[in-house]
């Protein structure tokens, strides 16, 4: 009996903890995703899941995932700042089910769960009660862009590190313990493994926090300085492989610096400020959006209850905790002004003088700082309200909200979308009910939590921008649709002798999703591309819906271009008809190219180009079985400019980041590999290092001495760092 009573008592105590309540709320909010009814759509499916799946599959095969041979003719995935190749909290769980999109969704949502635990501890660390702790966690993880940008999983993963990083830095400032310095460094390093603008802003905010802590420290300032130095050193050490790889490759990409004119289109529209009042004012949550700009990046709705509580008791918060409240309010205002881009002077001024900001192209990502600020303000106001203080509005916020309501009404009337008033009214009712319960009810916790939960379910976690049917993006030969038809075709034609690449248009799940199934493409979905590849092939980083949308280049004026022969492009696939296409079935059109060149070539003559790329007219007339193009001044070793030796391939083995070929050459001979080159590729002949040359503009060439040899080409992170950083420092 005593043991049963003790167990009941423990269960009762557990149910009363904020962590238990948070887990229950997270489960309710995420249940359709967790059950596999929904999946996180858009970029999560098309870009990030395929990269993580590829990484996990390579590791399970005891191979290295540094080079992805299935997209863009091959590219250094390790150097891609958003592909989470080195993120253990994502990659290690994916080893359990590397091809499961559902499991990937669960892994990302588990990050949200753990982040909420950190938010609870942070709020408790600052003396907040159970209900404000939960309010803080809910707004932090499901408010604004934290919900709307769930598809951008690298940002979400880094953002989920923020509560723990904030907590560790705060405890370090208060207690000056080395373990907190190490914890902050580890979490900061994991956060920095995704080099997104969200990470950049988090690091910047933490640097400002640390500087402020040093300024106001009244004891042991030197000790605090040394501990903060340890934080930076540990974080830099953990994230070093990622940022070294990215910056080593960056100089050769299309994203080595962004102009202000390029960045400003990524700002939020001023009309999007109306989303602070209601989450569906533009009907965006139901898939019929008339929003201004990209609603997934421009979303401010943190909830009606948090806004109403702040408006009602914000003045009392300012009076009781002026420093913290004003800092949080300033961060919120700054983040919104930053996100507005060129509409205010804030972003252009920062873009001009803040180092590193010109690497990013979306001011709207500044809203990721607005959400934790709003969460802090709402939780602080709720803490005050629970203390039974009378209403004390924050009148500047009331005035701004009133003006925003008037502007929103004008937008609704002028657009003729009158249901917008109903959504604003629903949010207003939810907020008013919460304030009423806090003022009149002796135990308002369940009421307030219920209203917050209802609000989030209606507006933030059941929307068209973060939830789609989980069955649509699955690639199998048995399902219907263009993606499945393309998958069936390419799988049936898979060969071991060469890439047999495809170009795909308007087939979203196959774009990058091909990498999950080892189907090589000459295009893909990624805004970061090799600049030479972009110039020659012309396939942009964003998916193209129609074949006719592909930009022509001097090297790829049509699908008969010799460059496609070198790339091994066998198939061009699209749902709709295009010139030269035939119907594979009623879902898919295809063009089969028959002039594909072998993966390995043995040209006998060198042609030189003085410019960075071979001249297009001469290039297009080249017999690549007989000649290769090299940049002027390339080190060609023993191989002569003309009359090089004949080479016989005896055996070859291909892996993602390694290729081994046994050859016999009757004289010094050229071996050209029709796979894309990048900094980081190194070659060995019988274990001795030799040069890898850039051949035919984009590909790899090695000069092989006479005799029988084993030639190994390997993509090496160390080689990438040496080459890329040496080139960058030498500029």
What is the topological layout?
Blueprint: H1 2-15, H2 18-34, E1 38-39, H3 43-60, H4 88-94, H5 101-125, H6 130-142, H7 145-148, H8 153-175, H9 178-191, H10 197-216, H11 221-250, H12 260-263, H13 304-320, H14 322-339, H15 346-353, H16 367-386, H17 395-415, H18 419-440, H19 445-459, E2 468-469, H20 482-492, E3 501-504, H21 531-537, H22 562-567, E4 569-574, E5 582-583, E6 589-592, E7 600-601, E8 605-609, H23 616-620, E9 627-631, E10 647-654, E11 658-665, E12 669-676, E13 681-685, E14 688-690, E15 693-695, E16 699-704, E17 707-715, H24 717-729
Helix pairs in contact: 2-5, 2-6, 3-4, 4-5, 5-6, 5-8, 6-16, 6-19, 8-9, 8-10, 9-11, 11-24, 13-14, 13-16, 13-18, 14-16, 18-19
Structure overview:
The protein is an alpha+beta fold. It folds into three domains: 19-459, no CATH class; 482-592, no CATH class; 601-729, no CATH class. The protein has 24 helices and 17 strands. A five-stranded antiparallel sheet has the order 10-11-17-13-14. Strand 15 and strand 16 (699-704) form a beta hairpin. Helix 2 packs antiparallel against helix 5 (101-125), helix 6 (130-142) runs antiparallel to helix 16 (367-386) and helix 8 (153-175) packs parallel to helix 10 (197-216). It is elongated, with a radius of gyration of 28 Å. The protein starts with a helix and ends with a helix. 50% of the residues are buried.
């Amino acid at each position: 009996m005593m043991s049963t009573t003790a167990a009941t008592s423990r269960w009762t105590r557990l149910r009363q903890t904020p962590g238990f309540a948070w887990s229950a709320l997270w489960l309710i909010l995420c249940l359709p995703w967790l059950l596999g009814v929904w999946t996180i759509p858009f970029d999560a499916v098309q870009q990030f899941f395929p990269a993580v799946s590829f990484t996990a599959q390579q590791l399970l095969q005891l191979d290295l995932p540094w080079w992805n041979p299935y997209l863009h003719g091959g590219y250094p995935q390790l150097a891609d700042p958003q592909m989470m190749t080195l993120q253990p909290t994502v990659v290690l769980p994916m080893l359990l089910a590397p091809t499961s999109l559902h499991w990937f969704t669960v892994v990302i949502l588990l990050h949200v769960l753990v982040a909420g635990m950190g938010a609870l501890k942070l709020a408790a660390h600052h003396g907040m009660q159970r209900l404000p702790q939960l309010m803080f966690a809910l707004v932090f993880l499901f408010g604004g862009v934290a919900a709307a940008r769930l598809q951008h999983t690298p940002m979400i993963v880094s953002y989920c590190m923020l509560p723990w990083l904030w907590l560790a830095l705060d405890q370090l400032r208060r207690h000056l313990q080395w373990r907190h310095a190490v914890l902050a460094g580890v979490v900061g390093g994991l956060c920095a493994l995704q080099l997104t603008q969200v990470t950049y802003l988090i690091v910047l905010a933490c640097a400002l926090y640390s500087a402020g802590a040093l300024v106001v420290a009244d004891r042991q300032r030197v000790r605090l300085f040394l501990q903060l130095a340890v934080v930076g050193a540990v974080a830099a050490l953990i994230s070093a492989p990622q940022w070294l790889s990215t910056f080593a490759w960056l100089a050769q990409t299309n994203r080595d610096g962004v102009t202000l004119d390029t960045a400003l289109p990524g700002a939020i529209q001023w009309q999007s400020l109306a989303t602070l009042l209601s989450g569906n004012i533009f009907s965006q949550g139901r898939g019929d959006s008339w929003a201004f700009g990209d609603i997934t990046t421009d979303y401010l709705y943190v909830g009606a209850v948090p806004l109403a509580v702040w408006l009602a008791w914000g003045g009392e918060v300012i009076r009781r905790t002026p420093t913290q409240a004003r800092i949080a309010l300033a961060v919120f205002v700054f983040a919104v002004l930053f996100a507005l881009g060129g509409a205010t002077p804030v972003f252009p001024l920062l873009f001009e003088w803040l180092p590193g900001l010109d690497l990013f192209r979306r001011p709207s990502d500044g809203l990721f700082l607005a959400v934790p600020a709003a969460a802090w303000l709402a939780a602080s106001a709720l803490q005050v309200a629970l203390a039974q203080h009378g209403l004390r509005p924050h009148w500047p916020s009331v005035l701004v909200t009133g003006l925003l309501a008037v502007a929103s009404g004008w937008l609704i009337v002028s657009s003729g979308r009158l249901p917008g008033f109903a959504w604003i009214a629903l949010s207003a009712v939810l907020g008013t009910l919460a304030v009423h319960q806090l003022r009149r009810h002796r135990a308002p916790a369940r009421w307030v939590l219920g209203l917050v939960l209802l609000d989030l379910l209606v507006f933030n976690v059941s929307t068209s921008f973060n939830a789609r049917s989980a069955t649509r993006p699955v690639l199998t030969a048995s399902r219907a649709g263009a993606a499945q038809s393309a998958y069936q075709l390419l799988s049936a034609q898979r060969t071991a002798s060469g890439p047999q690449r495809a170009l795909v248009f308007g087939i979203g799940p196959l774009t990058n999703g091909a990498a999950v199934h080892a189907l090589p493409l000459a295009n893909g979905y990624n805004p970061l591309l090799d600049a030479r590849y972009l110039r020659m092939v012309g396939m942009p980083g964003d998916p193209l819906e129609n074949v006719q949308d592909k930009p022509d280049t001097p090297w790829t004026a049509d699908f008969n271009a010799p460059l496609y022969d070198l790339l091994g492009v066998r198939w061009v696939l699209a749902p709709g008809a295009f010139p030269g296409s035939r119907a594979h079935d009623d879902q898919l059109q295809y063009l089969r190219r028959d002039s594909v060149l072998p993966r390995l070539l043995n040209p006998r003559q060198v042609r030189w180009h003085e410019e960075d790329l071979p001249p297009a007219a001469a290039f297009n007339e080249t017999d690549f079985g007989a000649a290769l193009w090299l940049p002027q001044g390339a080190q060609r070793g023993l191989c002569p400019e003309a009359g090089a030796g004949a080479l016989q391939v005896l055996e070859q083995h291909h892996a993602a980041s390694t290729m081994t070929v046994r050859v016999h050459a009757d004289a010094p001979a050229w071996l050209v590999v029709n796979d894309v080159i990048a900094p980081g590729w190194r070659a060995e002949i019988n274990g001795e290092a030799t040069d890898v040359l850039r051949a035919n503009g984009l590909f790899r060439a090695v000069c092989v001495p006479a005799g029988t040899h084993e030639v190994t080409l390997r993509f090496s992170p160390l080689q990438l760092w040496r080459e890329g950083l040496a080139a960058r420092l030498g500029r």
